[in-house]
Amino acid sequence: MATTFQPVTHVIFDMDGLLLDTERLYTQATQMLVDEYDKVYTWEVKVGCMGMKEQNAAQHIIKELDLPLSVDQYVDKIHALYPTLFPSAQLLPGADKLVRHLHKHKIPLAIASGGAQDSYLLKTTNHQHFTDLFSHVVLATSDVHVKNGKPAPDVFLVCASRFPGQPPKPEKCLVFEDAPNGVSAAVSAKMQVVMVPDNRLDTKSMSHQATQILNSLEDFIPELFGLPAYD
């Protein structure tokens, strides 16, 4: 597979479940919400909406669990649970090391997430020094220029266009993702994508899409993509 890797100049990270362990917090919040209706937020339902814009994810959950809620009602209820959960988010293994290494070597970095501004601020409450290492953050739910959420390529294309100076061509961007919708979005954007999936996810169906699949960010070898090797 290494022969298929191409050198890149810019790196874009998803955030939830990739840099921060927020997917477990989303699961916890969602189950708390659907408990009211005696429903179970299963892994199968969750996989279907990982990485989506908030409204699309809400619509998916409402449909799959047959909830008697409108999208706006669901969003209001789930948002009320976030302030007590999201500030506890922790960095995932390898995230701090990789991001600081690339930043040290002046590789332009950005975040492209399906989330919203208010939840982003809650999740990064205790990680300001970390998020300051990124050139910019594009949040699909809040950004008016992101017309379609993942699996559409919009969030990655908008993110690439906002790098300082001459924006890189898509093929010069490397994306890190954990979710199938995100992998599909990156591929549609014509970017290489390293997938670091949840260990419950069947990656066989994604192996033809992802450029590389890793168990952890700790396993990433930067020089395979023309990036500076660890010191």
From TrEMBL:
Similarity comment: family membership: Belongs to the HAD-like hydrolase superfamily. CbbY/CbbZ/Gph/YieH family.
EC class of the enzyme, as a word: hydrolase
Stored PANTHER family: 2-DEOXYGLUCOSE-6-PHOSPHATE PHOSPHATASE 2 (PTHR18901), PSEUDOURIDINE-5'-PHOSPHATASE (PTHR18901:SF38)
Domain of life: Eukaryota
MF annotations from Gene Ontology: metal ion binding; pseudouridine 5'-phosphatase activity
Gene source species: Petrolisthes cinctipes
Catalytic activity annotation: psi-UMP + H2O = pseudouridine + phosphate
Coiled coil segments of this chain: none
Protein name per UniProt: pseudouridine 5'-phosphatase
